[in-house]
Amino acid sequence: MFARYAAIVKNLRGIALFDLGEEGVWESIEWLVKRFRYRDLGLTPSIYRKYADNLGRYLDGNPFRLLTYPLQELEDFTKEFAACLDTHYEVAELLTMSSIYISPAMVIGKSFEPQISKLSIEAIKICKELDLNNWKLHMRIADYTILDMYEFSISGALKIIDGCMENGLEDIYSQRIYKIKKDVKRYWRILCSEPQSKPFLYYIDNLKLYTQNCKVQNICRKSNIAAALAIVPVIVIPPE
Highest taxon of the source (predicted)? Predict the structure, then answer.
């Protein structure tokens, strides 16, 4: 499992979540396939199992890659995470995999967006449709969003895991919010606060979600779990 993870992680540029039963979603996937053919996009195990017949021909980097858990304890963590959050397993797995693979999450269509919005702590909103160049630019910026905050995010998670206690959580939350507020400025070209604005990207703090909804004691001294507790950017791709 770890060998497969190592082979994929470097070239991965996003991890997709979608409901093929939603109108327009398949067209949005084809849009991604045609216009981002040189970007590897990850499929979580739960989404691939659900739509294997539809997605098989797009595997092996055309443009999708089937992701795996590098460690069994990370898969076990995802099951607990989903139960604690009382959310769809596919959503919890998307957030976990995005953190583990250090790659932005992508929600295609509207089916899962309400759950993502509810779990988020900040959002980038836009007032006009993006052209192809802006999509490419700001997807690339989202790559840097998760990458540049990753070491900081994981270091904070390790403090909680190694200390086996909740003391200091509020300080860590505040530090992470500060980092997110600074990161928002990267998106100045498209950022909009008008009433009619719509989300382009959500920020989700896996550590905060876990520690506020699950038991910190369950991850006590399990340092590998820190890999799943980063700040995750989630790009919203509307249905065609």
Answer: Archaea
Residue length, the chain? 240
pLDDT digits over 176-224, tens only? 999 999 999 999 999 998 988 999 999 999 999 999 999 999 999 999 9
Domain around 190: 2-237
Q: How far apart are the first and last CA of the chain?
A: 35
Q: What pLDDT does residue 13 have?
A: 86
Closest of 18, 22, 20, 19 to residue 42, by C-alpha: 18
What are all long-range contacts of 220-226, with beta carbons under 8 Å and residues at least 24 apart? 220/161, 220/164, 221/161, 221/162, 221/164, 222/73, 222/161, 223/158, 223/161, 223/162, 224/71, 224/73, 224/74, 225/73, 225/74, 225/77, 225/157, 225/161, 226/154, 226/157, 226/158, 226/161
5: its two tokens: 């993870």
CA distance 14 to 147: 12
pTM above 0.70, yes or no: yes
